[in-house]
Design brief:
Elements (H helix, E strand, L loop, with lengths): L1 E8 L8 H15 L10 E6 L20 H15 L4 E6 L13 H8 L5 E6 L3 E6 L2 E6 L5 E5 L17 E2 L8 H4 E2 L2 E7 H5 L2 E5 L3 E3 L3 E3 L1 H4 L13 E2 L15 H18 L3 H20 L15 H14 L13 E15 L3 E13 L2 H11 L8 H8 L12 E6 L35
Parallel strand pairs: 1-17, 2-3, 2-11, 3-4, 11-15
Antiparallel strand pairs: 1-16, 5-6, 7-10, 8-14, 9-10, 12-13, 15-16
Helix pairs in contact: 1-2, 7-8, 9-11
Length: 449
């Protein structure tokens, strides 16, 4: 069975070229038949990738970092037209805890421009916990306006009955390690999901395809990490070496183990507002990092191809997005539709997601199934999707909550004649854009011909 993936060459690498970008978005969503999925009265969630307001690669800029507002606006215009004055549109995401939401360029202006339309439109920060960093310390505060529900996947979780699973070792960077095991153990695998997601009839998933330190690549599947109100529910890696049952790094290493334990203590102290004590740990942590880097162990916290944790979280969240009803109960039939529209005018390569280097691509891509879409787009990025664990897991997700039909595969529709009408297996080396992966994935994820 074919799953349409549209790839449109916008003939520009500039976000100021508004006319060409909007024309390309219109063409991409027309190719996948957007109007079949939207009707008046629906609640629509537009979910861009708003990971961070600033690029930690100081030469990278934000155009390669997060989904740009002009692309979101082009999608919004189409949705407004199809809803015909009846319904509601939310533009929302849960970026990293340190992201300054108001600094994300262009999004407030979108709301201002369209508030006079007959449709209710709202820009929402899904996060319940946010923080700022001062002198290397995280200072956190609670957003009382956040709305979330705990959704328990239970036996439908990728973590359930995993061999040798030790939930006490699961971690998410910069969060109190004591919280995760409360929500992941035995038959309990809970996520704290935004009510805006649960209330939606249609999700328009708008990723910014980039290389990714923990996941290899972030495309449509990975973008749903941002449907959570609290990141402490999200396993990102498992503490320790592969030899010790973890996936943080490959071989047993006393310096690496010490660094991980010190980070745990620092995160606990920050959570308890004991910042003066946490500061004392900053220097031995930096010392361990320096020694590891000198010894060639540059990646940390699961930022390599051996990470077997984040892919499970990604698949779990995609199941929730499709199968959780408005109350958060898991059903066996799809509860909402997913449409994907990706901003690839300028994508990110090398040390994504928050240190990316700009990659001029000039594409708008769209699709109707996240697995097929990620298989197609990762291939165009020059990656072998069989080496991206989240895509492999999602493809295998059969049972009662499948994310793709067994016979479903991408068929590309494009204004680029060389790839129009082709399947992934028919693409050639010269058709690809050859992104450079992160250091922890280099010489592993690249596609070979």
């Amino acid at each position: 069975m074919d799953s349409r993936v549209s790839i449109v060459n916008a003939n520009t690498f500039s976000y100021t070229d508004v006319g060409r970008i909007k024309e390309s978005v219109n063409k991409a969503i027309e190719m996948i038949g957007l109007k079949k999925f939207l009707k008046p009265g629906m609640n629509v969630l537009i979910k861009p990738n708003l990971v961070m307001d600033r690029n930690f690669n100081h030469d990278g800029g934000v155009e390669c970092l997060y989904t740009q507002a002009v692309v979101v606006e082009a999608v919004l215009e189409n949705i407004i037209q199809l809803l015909d004055g009846k319904g509601k549109i939310i533009i929302g995401d849960a970026p990293m805890q340190e992201c300054v939401f108001d600094e994300l360029t262009g999004f407030k202006e979108i709301i201002e421009r369209y508030k006079s339309s007959n449709i209710e439109i709202e820009l929402v920060d899904f996060r319940e916990l946010t923080s700022y960093v001062k002198n290397g310390m995280h200072y956190s505060f609670i957003n009382e306006n956040a709305k979330g529900k705990i959704v328990n996947l239970g036996k439908n979780s990728e973590f359930y009955l995993e061999d040798n699973l030790d939930c006490t070792k699961m971690r998410v960077t910069n969060y109190d390690p004591r919280i995760l095991p409360k929500h992941h153990h035995d038959e309990v695998h809970e996520y704290y999901v935004s009510e805006y997601l649960l209330d939606a009839d249609v999700i328009v998933n708008m990723p910014k395809p980039k290389s990714h330190r923990k996941g290899g690549a972030t495309i449509a599947l990975k973008n749903l990490v941002g449907i959570n109100t609290r990141k402490e529910f999200l396993p990102h890696h498992t503490k320790g070496s592969v030899q010790e049952g973890g996936d943080e790094y490959l071989q047993k290493n006393h310096i690496h183990a010490l660094r991980s334990s010190l980070l745990d203590e620092k995160n606990k102290l920050e959570a308890e507002n004991k910042h003066w004590l946490a500061k004392l740990l900053k220097f031995p942590i930096l010392g361990c990092s320096y020694i590891l880097k000198k010894a060639g162990n540059a990646y940390a916290e699961g930022s390599w191809y051996g990470n077997d944790t984040i892919s499970k979280t990604i698949v779990d969240l995609n199941r929730i997005a499709i199968y959780a009803d408005k109350t958060g109960k898991i059903r066996t039939t799809p509860q909402r539709t997913m449409i994907i529209v990706a901003d690839m005018i300028v994508s990110g390569e090398k040390e994504g997601p928050v240190n990316p280097t700009p990659k001029n691509v000039g594409l708008i891509a769209a699709g109707t199934n996240s697995v097929c879409f990620d298989e197609a787009v990762s291939t165009l990025m020059g990656f072998d999707y069989h080496k991206i664990p989240s895509i492999v897991r999602a493809r295998k997700s059969k049972g009662v909550l499948p994310l793709v039909r067994e016979d479903e595969e991408a068929l590309i529709f494009s204004n680029i004649s060389d790839i129009d009408g082709k399947r992934i297996s028919e693409l050639h080396s010269e058709n690809l854009y050859w992104f450079e992966p992160t250091a922890g994935w280099k010489n592993h994820i690249e596609k070979h011909y």
